[in-house]
Design a protein that fits this description.
single chain; alpha+beta; four-stranded antiparallel β-barrel
């Protein structure tokens, strides 16, 4: 369990729509799972404990309520593995833009 104090950077979690409450045009396998929301922002309450409901203010100024899921959450996304074709094209483009002849 973690705890946070007012102004800490945190992440909250909330189920927006339970399984079965989603729009009818959503694929069947998607209908079987809830629509979840994960939002990062600054804790607006005096204190909060992981798993307890809290309010946060996002960087865009929205106030959001949810269960405290983490304190100082990391950004874990990336752009995947380098693609050899794109690396080659990048070098060719740099040569062309510098006024050289095409490589390859």
């Amino acid at each position: 369990m973690g705890s946070a104090k007012q102004g800490d950077w945190v992440q909250v979690y909330r189920v927006v729509l339970a399984a079965g409450e989603r729009a009818p045009q959503v694929p069947e396998d998607t209908q079987k799972v809830p629509l979840e929301m994960w939002v990062k922002g600054f804790l607006t309450e005096a204190a909060g404990e992981t798993g307890k409901e809290v309010s946060i203010k996002t960087v865009t100024g929205r106030t959001v309520r949810g269960r405290l899921a983490g304190v100082l959450p990391a950004y874990t996304h990336n752009f995947g593995e380098p693609q050899p074709e794109l690396l080659e094209i990048c070098q060719e483009l740099r040569t062309l833009l510098k006024g050289g002849s095409e490589v390859g």
